Amino acid sequence: MTIITKRREFNLKRFIKAPSEHQSVMEQLGIIKHDIEKAGAILADTIRQGGKVLLCGNGGNAVERQHIAAEFAVRYENKNPRRKDLAAIALTTDTSILTASVNDQEYNRVFSPQVEAPSDPGDCLIALSTSGNSANGRLAVEIAKKKGITLIGMTGSADSKLNGLANIPAQAPSPVTARISEARIVIGHWWCGLAKESFCEKA
Q1: Cβ neighbours around 34 below 10 Å, total
Q2: Which among 2, 42, 44, 108 would be 20 to 30 A from 169, CA to CA?
Q3: pTM of the prediction?
Q4: Sign of the torsion formed by the C-alpha atoms of 116, 40, 88 and 59
Q5: pLDDT tens sequence across 132-156
Q6: Pairs from 174-183 (Cβ < 8 Å, separation ≥ 24)
Q7: For 16-45, what is the mean pLDDT?
Q8: How far apart, in whole angstroms, are the C-alpha atoms of residue 94 and residue 109?
Q9: Rounded to the nearest 5°, which phi and psi values hold at 58?
């Protein structure tokens, strides 16, 4: 058996193992269901009181936040025509602000101007960090807390600085990056559905 064949077999075994790992993590979300429910209620209350949902994260986390912000802002699942579009902003989409922050200051402050300027007390920031120790995310969180913004942290199972700063830490029950990402998308979709249902306009 060649080295290439062995490598292919190893990769195939990993692929076959991934769905069972995913299912296990989904089942374990029940462990943090109370934190997920509390965070969902906070998001609904934030928007009901005229606040905004802000979201930040790096790399793949940034794409996830754009995805969830879009689900909040546009009719989620498109099943009820009376569902309202909700105020949600991903802090990862304005390339002018992002590049100016990095060029004129430092990367650790890449999200800070967008938390300092357009946010208001009563808003809610969802901060994603797989490790929970992202320096730019942590700085944005510290600024948010000073402004009276509620913080929801979305991390993995490991203890982290972000978990300690968050009002509600939603820790995906896995140390594996891919499983953490999958769990957060499920949680984010549930939050969107919950918030949208609570804002359905009566016929």
Answers
A1: 10
A2: 108
A3: 0.85
A4: positive
A5: 888 888 889 999 999 999 999 999 9
A6: 174/21, 174/25, 174/28, 176/21, 177/60, 177/130, 178/18, 179/21, 179/22, 179/25, 180/130, 180/155, 180/156, 181/60, 181/61, 181/64, 181/130, 182/22, 182/25, 182/26, 183/25, 183/26, 183/29
A7: 91
A8: 14
A9: -105, 150
Provide the residue ranges of all domains of the chain, joining segments of one domain with +: 3-198
- Beta bridge partners of residue 128, listed in sequence order: 154
d(CA 149, CA 54): 10
Inter-residue contact 44 to 58 (CB < 8 Å): no
Secondary structure class of 122 (helix, strand, coil): coil
Torsion of CA 102, 107, 109, 110, to 10 degrees: 60
- Under DSSP, the state recorded for 32 is G
Cβ atoms 88, 115 nearer than 8 A: no
Domain range 3-198, CATH architecture: 3-Layer(aba) Sandwich (3.40)
